[in-house]
Write a structure and sequence with these properties.
Strands 1, 2, 3, 4, 5, 6, 7, 8 and 9 form a 9-stranded mixed beta sheet that branches. A hairpin with a 3-residue loop joins β6 and β7. Among the domains are: 54 residues, SH3 type barrels, CATH 2.30.30; 50 residues, no CATH class. About 9% of the residues have low confidence. Helices cover 21% and strands 34% of the residues. The radius of gyration is 20 Å and the shape is globular.
Length: 164
């Protein structure tokens, strides 16, 4: 059984600057996969890349799942139910974006803390991230993880990491 990864964990990744498979610290996650990492050798930040020494994941299972019929032969999905789900999802997304705009828009540049893994944040702090833009801290998960709401959605980020 493998340990579930989280921000601030270390992982091997291909460093785009060093051009080697090296130890990296996870900065942010997308779902259960590392998204952005920091090289422990050159300290550059980049998207996670599978180490070159690791074989690529087999895509056969995903291809079969995508080509399989979505429902059993006896059942049919009605367009009405799928469009109702799509409408509800769109409304939830619109509400989330309105909440983000209400919390972030109209704030001055000095109201935002620049995001760094070494900076500690509290709930409701305004954050300015170089890649994701402006956001606010939804919650502090633990001493090294926060959830931040950005315009495009919520992300789990590392914070309060002490550099040796």
């Amino acid at each position: 059984m493998t340990k579930k990864l989280k921000p601030a964990d270390e992982i091997d990744s291909y460093c785009t600057k060093c051009k080697l498979d090296l130890a990296h610290r996870i900065i942010s996650m997308e779902g259960d996969k590392p998204h952005k990492v920091e090289c422990q050798t050159c300290h550059s930040h980049h998207l996670y890349r599978r180490p070159k020494s690791v074989a690529e994941e087999p895509r056969v299972a995903r291809a079969k799942a995508a080509s399989a019929p979505s429902s059993s032969p006896g059942k049919s999905s009605t367009p009405r139910s799928s469009s109702a789900k799509a409408m509800a999802a769109a409304q939830a997304e619109n509400q989330r974006e309105r909440d983000w705009e209400r919390r972030v828009s109209g704030k001055g540049v000095h109201d935002f803390k620049p995001y760094r893994t070494t900076t500690s944040f509290d709930a409701n702090d305004l954050v300015r991230h170089l890649k994701f833009g402006d956001g606010y801290v939804v919650r502090v998960i633990d001493k090294n993880k926060i959830e931040v709401m950005f315009r495009d959605g919520i992300r789990t980020l590392a914070h309060g990491i002490e550099m040796a």
